[in-house]
From TrEMBL:
<keyword id="KW-0813">Transport</keyword>
<keyword id="KW-0067">ATP-binding</keyword>
<dbReference type="GO" id="GO:0016887">
    <property type="term" value="F:ATP hydrolysis activity"/>
</dbReference>
<dbReference type="GO" id="GO:0005524">
    <property type="term" value="F:ATP binding"/>
</dbReference>
<feature type="domain" description="ABC transporter">
    <location>
        <begin position="4"/>
        <end position="229"/>
    </location>
</feature>
<protein>
    <submittedName>
        <fullName>ABC-2 type transport system ATP-binding protein</fullName>
    </submittedName>
</protein>
<keyword id="KW-0547">Nucleotide-binding</keyword>
């Protein structure tokens, strides 16, 4: 069974301020097994964020099919979106929400009933219990990143996607992120992460796909792929 199935996924960004149109994805096929930790690897500009933003429903695809947990993106957009949680790369948070409010509002957006919310549990997991009532504009970069992870988890998604979770992150936060990711995976969550660090992907991921210039140029079990490089 696949957590994510992608067929012929293409994205062309429209021309912009004298820049020509940009083919960011050129027909990518990808299958992510349920329960895996899956790495999307590739240099800057390869198309990784574009792919993830399409999964998250933040960027519209130009062509192709996407199924998340069996739900077709176009046919069942609501179920498809509910099955996935995304921790974005940018530290965009509403500065006037406290950490607790940010999680509550996110849960509300996903229609999680009040009695089913796990706000305290999530605050604990991301190590922000002490900062629950602090406004996000007062939080450090590391704390914001942790809060973004928490926000991705409020609706208890089947699939968690992390876009460059460790870019510019210190060793302590990196450890915490990886511990959380491993724990969530052990509880059955499928994890997809992008990185441009091969070493990190090698340590964390069961399978790796390499994206280059908008195309998938390799996909295999990590041990086999690394053996070939
Ligand atoms: P405007 O001033 O019209 O809003 P911007 O230059 O700020 O235009 O770009 C609009 C958005 O498109 C920005 O969020 C930017 O990140 C994105 N964008 C435009 N071109 C590129 C590009 N080549 N690579 C990545 N993002 C781009
Ligand atoms: P990666 O995440 O692998 O670094 P991206 O998906 O961000 O790659 O970008 C893939 C290509 O698409 C790059 O050439 C980038 O400049 C371009 N791009 C990304 N976002 C936009 C945008 N909003 N408008 C125009 N071009 C974009």
């Amino acid at each position: 069974q696949f957590a994510i199935e992608i067929e012929g996924l293409a994205k062309t960004y429209a021309a912009h301020k004298g820049e020509p149109p940009k083919e960011a994805l050129k027909g990518v096929d990808l299958q992510v097994p349920q329960g895996s930790i899956f790495g999307l690897l590739g240099p800057n500009g390869a198309g990784k964020s574009t792919l993830i933003n399409i999964l998250a429903g933040l960027v519209r695809k130009s062509a192709g099919n996407v199924r998340i947990w069996g739900f077709d993106h176009d046919v069942n957009p609501r179920q498809s979106r509910a099955a996935i949680g995304v921790m974005p790369q940018e530290l965009n948070l509403d500065p006037f929400f406290t950490a607790r409010a940010a999680l509550d509002v996110q849960a509300g957006l996903y229609g999680v009933p009040k009695r089913e919310r796990r706000t305290d549990e999530i605050l604990e997991m991301i190590g922000l219990t002490d900062k629950a009532d602090a406004y996000s504009r007062t939080l450090s970069g590391g704390m914001r990143r942790r809060l973004l992870l928490g926000k991705a988890l409020v609706h208890n998604p089947h699939v968690l996607v992390l876009d460059e979770p460790t870019a510019g992150v210190d060793i302590e936060l990196r450890q915490m992120l990886w511990n959380n990711v491993r724990k969530l995976n052990e509880q059955g969550m499928t994890i997809i992460l992008t990185t441009h660090y091969l070493e990190e992907a090698e340590q964390m991921c069961d399978q790796i796909a390499i994206i280059h210039n908008g195309e998938k140029i390799a996909h295999d079990r990590t041990d086999r792929l690394i053996g070939r490089l």
